[in-house]
Task: structure prediction
Amino acid sequence: MSGIITRRAVLTTGALGAGLVLSGCDKIAEQPGFRKILFSGEKINQGLQRALSARTALAPEFRPDQMSPIFRTNGNRNPNTPDYNAMAGVQFAGWKLQVGGLVTRPLAISLAQLRAMPARTQITRHDCVEGWSAIGKWRGPLLGSILKLAGVRDTARFVVFTCADLMGGQPYYESIDLIDAFHPQTILALALNDAPLDVGHGAPVRLRVERQLGYKQAKYIMKIDAVASLDGIGKGKGGYWEDAIGYDWYAGI
Ligand SMILES: Nc1nc2c(c(=O)[nH]1)N[C@H]1C(S)=C(S)[C@@H](COP(=O)(O)O)O[C@H]1N2
Ligand SMILES: [Mo]
Result:
C-alpha cells in the first residue's frame, strides 16, 4: 500500500516537475536576449552542418549506358621497376598490401583476401586536372572496412598511400583525411569495367576517392599508413603533385 502511494506521489511530482520546467522554458524563451542567442546558435549549426555534409555527401553515380567507351590511362602507366615487374609477372600472387602506422593490428593482405572481402561497385566520373574526364565502373572493398580491421588509433588523422611507381627515385604517394577514408564511396578498386585492374589503371589495387580529382586516385598501392601528421612524408604537402607543383591537397570536386 504505502509502496503504491509513494509511487503515485513520485509520478505526480514528476508530472508537476515537467510542467514547471516547460513553463519555465517558455518564459525564458520569451525574453528577447535568449531568442537572439538561440537564433545565432541555429545559424552556426546550419553552417557546421553544411560544411560537414559537403564532406560526407555522395559523388554522383551513373548508369551503365553512360560509361565511357574507353577509360584512358594517365600519369605513370607502368611502374616498370624490377620489383613491380616480378610481382606483375606472377599476377601479384605473392604480393601483400601492407597496412600499418597508427593502427592496433598491422595487416598484410593478399590479393585473394582483398577479393574475398565484401565489395562495392560504383560508376563514377574521374576528372583529371589536365582537362579530361571518364566515367567508369569501379569495384573493390571499402577502404573503411580495411581500416576497421586494422584498428585506426585515436591519434591518427590521415591515411597515406605509398605506390610502386617512382617519381625522381621516390614512390608516388598520396594522402587523405579520415573523413574521406571512411566515406562510403572510398574503395580500394580491384576492378575497372568488370575486368581485373590492368597495369595501366593501377594493378593490383588503386584508390577511388570519388569526391576528389584524378591525382588523388593513387594507383599501384603497396602500403597504407595511418598517420597523425603529413610532416616528414615526402616534402610534407601530402602527395607527389602537392609537393612537386603545389596542387591542392584537398582536391574537391
Ligand atoms: N601511383 C600513381 N597514381 C596515380 C598517378 C601516377 O602517376 N602514379 N597519376 C594520377 C593521375 S594525374 C590521374 S589523372 C590518374 C589516372 O588514372 P588512370 O591511369 O586510371 O586513368 O591516376 C592518378 N594516380
Ligand atoms: Mo590527373
